[in-house]
Amino acid sequence: MDCIPMKCRTACSRVKGRFPYHWDLNVYRGCAHDCKYCFARYSHAYLEEKDFARRVFVKTNIAEMLEKQLRSPRWDGTVVNLGGVTDSYQPCEAREKQMPEILRLMIKYKNPVILSTKSDLILRDFDLLYELSRLAFVNVASTVTTMDEDICRKLEPGAASSARRIEMLGAFRKTKVHTSVHMMPVIPFLTDGEENIEAVFAAAKSAGVEWVLTALLNLRGQTREVFLDFMEREYPEKYRKLLPLYLRGGLKGYRVPVWEIIARVRRKYGLYSNYQRAIDRDLAARRGLEPVQLSLFEEG
Asked: What is the per-residue pLDDT for 42?
């Protein structure tokens, strides 16, 4: 894997959509975790690079650009999502050490953050996250698609094991850091069985997380080709069942029974499906306001 330096013009990019944030910061372009379902493979196109997993670009001036934004009188001080496109704690970070300076700036400006990673390297920065959580909202999330480690190694070959991700989340249990699991995507005929869904929710509960977000597999652009090639090679029988679902309109009849399983398991473990209200509740508590009531199934 190559870690290639590059410069960025801005640190935080504005994003649209039904997210509990509208700012996204990505230290890296490309990701060595090489998850076969990764939606972000498109992001290498403008760099004229094809090897998303082995040629990772490092924004070496990102801390400088971030401080320019945070100290601007126009900065709104709202939640920044750290690593919405590529993982902030992928292998390059062990050498580049970009994240500690970014977290120190968030502490300096008391800016709330959401951070999602499939690596327990984040525990290197435990003290910084702990300090920031005392000043602002902090959520640490990890994507966990399956507790079957054999599937995990094939599906997410460069990431930490599912068990290590759960242990990482559990390390924040006695802090003010909020934690969550992203079971995204749920993959038809591979990770959508009730046994696997329950295993993920049970592991999340054991780690003390507050919510589990779920979404079905979405195949677009380069991701479609990479993922279908992977399924045909590694799970040919499942591939033949999955492929018709991703033809025009094929998922419509499939969705309902899967969401029914997820809803049943969610009720069993009492884990929320959305964290916009959790952010609002945290901010209200910090301001001494009446707490916002939460619902297991409230959508954003």
From this structure: 67
